[in-house]
Amino acid sequence: MGVARSVQSFFWRQGESVRYFFNYKKENQLLEAENQLLKDRISALMAYVKDVSAEEAIALASGKSEYTFIPATIIKNSINKQHNYIILSVGSNHGVEEGMGVITSRGVVGIVEAVSPRICYVSSFLNTTQSASAKIVSNGVFGPMVWTGVGNRAVLREIPIHTEVYLGDTISTSGYSAIYPPDIPIGVVSSVEEVNGVALEIGVEMFQNFRSLRLVDVVVNNYGKEIKMIENETE
Q: Does this model's pTM top 0.85?
């Protein structure tokens, strides 16, 4: 009996070591993605500042930023359905409106669907009817990303077949929507498959762990209403 317990203990320790290795690897990939995006933003800012006059710099500093954020705590979170939802501790009294995105530093969380004065209902990204515009960070190629219906796995679709993409490449938000800001790390490429010989479907292992979600940010796009107004006028 003692030998059996020793053997079980050995294999349990080995299993824990393997799990620790893969968790560590995933955390390291997230940190690398965040660091690279930060470096890219700094480089872009430095290049921009070189060509900006003093008057333009003052106007830029005094202007309103494109995005602001409303911090929130999750009150309720479903993860085991095909159409999951989240309830947050903020509502219209805090500036929340229908259609706003919800994020963390690890990726997209969902979209606000209903609002009361003190709370709001969010359609989770773990929802088979929802999508987010995402891109391959290394080349900027973007497409719609949807949840597969299983765990933390998503699929990036409609990617041109000639696109260079490799396992482990970082996927982030594209910024080509009024819902989510650009360059939020979402996950890493876990698979690449051809679809009918004309496009690629890219499997994405998301950084976001929806089981442990607690604190999030509601995204306020300060140009959102103007964007919607112009789109409606040109349709």
A: no
